[in-house]
Amino acid sequence: MFPFTTKLLPVSSSLTTRPATRADLPVLLEFEQGIVAWERPFNPTLKPDPISYYDIGELIDLDTAEVVVALDGERIIGSGYVKIRQASDYVQPSEYAFLGFMFVDPGYRGQGVNRLVMDALLDWAKKRGLSEVRLQVYSENASAIRAYEKKGFSPLLLEMRRTI
């Protein structure tokens, strides 16, 4: 059972973010399954459950990445990560920040939690001298696209597929 709610909850005025720790892994692994469940309708190529997108523990341990959690009091209500990636040889800048693992407890959606997480991730990237941020989102995921556009993101490349 997921550790989140489906009813809209009032957000306290003391929402905070902090770096995730390995002690947060049980909740973060549930968040990951929430992401998989949400994205499954957008991608018919996903294997049957259980699947995992991330090695969250490794991301927590890396010096070149940061996993952030959003908190309402002590309760973890959102997550995201930023990781330094090397760009292709033919583009600039040579390194960029890549965002992923964006999840907000359904009871807290639409209340600025994702913005708070993204602000913390972008601050981490800026402090490391990175000048570009990228992420991936399914083209049919309109709510996520709107959230990213509000933070200044715009489409760069559309990957297409077909079966043969």
TrEMBL record:
<keyword id="KW-0808">Transferase</keyword>
<dbReference type="GO" id="GO:0005840">
    <property type="term" value="C:ribosome"/>
</dbReference>
<keyword id="KW-0689">Ribosomal protein</keyword>
<feature type="domain" description="N-acetyltransferase">
    <location>
        <begin position="15"/>
        <end position="164"/>
    </location>
</feature>
<dbReference type="InterPro" id="IPR000182">
    <property type="entry name" value="GNAT_dom"/>
</dbReference>
<dbReference type="Pfam" id="PF00583">
    <property type="entry name" value="Acetyltransf_1"/>
</dbReference>
<dbReference type="GO" id="GO:0016747">
    <property type="term" value="F:acyltransferase activity, transferring groups other than amino-acyl groups"/>
</dbReference>
<dbReference type="InterPro" id="IPR050832">
    <property type="entry name" value="Bact_Acetyltransf"/>
</dbReference>
<protein>
    <submittedName>
        <fullName>Ribosomal protein S18 acetylase RimI</fullName>
    </submittedName>
</protein>
<keyword id="KW-0687">Ribonucleoprotein</keyword>
<dbReference type="InterPro" id="IPR016181">
    <property type="entry name" value="Acyl_CoA_acyltransferase"/>
</dbReference>
<keyword id="KW-0012">Acyltransferase</keyword>
